[in-house]
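Schema walk-through. Below, the input block comes first and the output block second. Nothing else is stored per chain. Lengths vary across the set, and this one has 188 residues.
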Amino acid sequence: MRINLVKQYVDDFKNALEAVENDSPYIITFNTDKIADIDCCKKLIKTHKDKLVHGSKSVYLFELVEITTNKQMIGKRYNDEKLNNKERNFSRINKGHETSQTLYVGSSSSSLLVRFRNHIGIGARKDTLCKGSPKTWSLHLRHWATNLNIDLRFKYIFLNSFTDAQLHTFEDILWEIEKPMFGKKGGK
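--- output ---
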């Protein structure tokens, strides 16, 4: 085995972490009932657009604000929509993570704004190429989470000095820590 190369990768990763200028995540908080209306979705996106395009490489997560949120209901509604909605690719359900406060962990090496739009539920349909590939897997929140009155936090951090490999390593480590309800580990 090439232990020296692994050590060098780990050292380079640690150096990249130390070089992160602002290690406090940016946070967008919203209620799922507010995104049922497409105009409200667009307003939410427009309000935060400048912050979401700040950098090209980022890691993000969606988490529940309230610890007491009914996670069983979230899982059921998500699963029902995933089974019945043939227009969208819903991220996978992670068995054993049903009680997690985190819904999803992801990364973007190009446009966080587009990923945010996809997860909110705008674009990324299987039959179109509008603002996201038809192969994009997302939460599509506005298609299942409305009327659940869930307060969510979208937390993100820009890691522009990271290589793509370092970005995905960071995402995988965060995925292991957070154990999200939805979305596979190692998306790339």
